[in-house]
């Protein structure tokens, strides 16, 4: 008989103890109905995420990440240049040019933005203006960047010979990331 009485006494006791807990039980979220993010972990910079996405060939997603970076840190030369590069990769040359011109207006000493502007200008057939952009980028790095030097060489050759069609070049330029926010032009040689 004691074995039948014990569960009958324990059940009301357990129910009374359960009523003493906070509403929602032990697993209720503290701030709402959504799962919490990583506690104490800093957010990843949108520029870093965007650069990784550009390297993976995901320019549309990179542009969204650059937009989040711009919202978090403002439209500085890094975000403007990165957004311009993503637009260039997407073939949006007008938007890319506007963003890159804003970047060089904000910081005329930022060589990657000048280089990327030169890429846009080459893509739009303005070799003389592109050569000037590459010349500025080349001067800013004190001639220490082989990629910018090659870009300048190609732009000068195309500017000086209106009918320039390099025997080994296809004319297709490709933007690649170098460093934190540097991009350079590569062509299929």
From TrEMBL:
Gene3D superfamilies: Tetratricopeptide repeat domain. This is Tetratricopeptide repeat protein. Residues 1-18 form the signal peptide. The keyword Repeat does not apply. SUPFAM superfamilies: TPR-like (SSF48452). TPR repeats lie at residues 111-144. The keyword Signal applies. InterPro entries: TPR-like_helical_dom_sf, TPR_rpt. Keywords: Signal, TPR repeat. It holds the Pfam family TPR_16.
């Amino acid at each position: 008989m004691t074995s039948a009485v014990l569960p009958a006494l324990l059940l009301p006791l357990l129910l009374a103890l359960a009523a003493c807990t906070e509403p929602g039980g032990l697993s209720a979220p503290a701030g709402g109905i959504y799962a919490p993010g990583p506690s104490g972990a800093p957010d990843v910079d949108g520029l870093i995420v965007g650069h990784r996405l550009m390297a993976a060939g995901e320019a549309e997603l990179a542009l969204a990440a650059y937009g989040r970076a711009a919202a978090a840190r403002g439209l500085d030369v890094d975000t403007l240049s990165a957004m311009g590069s993503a637009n260039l990769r997407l073939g949006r040359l007008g938007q890319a040019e506007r963003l890159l011109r804003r970047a060089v207006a904000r910081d005329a000493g930022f060589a990657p933005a000048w280089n990327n502007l030169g890429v846009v200008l080459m893509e739009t057939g303005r070799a003389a203006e592109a050569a000037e952009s590459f010349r500025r980028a080349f001067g800013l790095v004190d001639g220490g960047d082989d990629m910018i030097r090659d870009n300048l060489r190609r732009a000068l050759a195309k500017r000086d010979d209106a009918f320039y069609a390099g025997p080994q070049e296809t004319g297709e330029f490709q933007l690649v990331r170098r460093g934190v926010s540097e991009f350079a032009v590569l062509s299929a040689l």
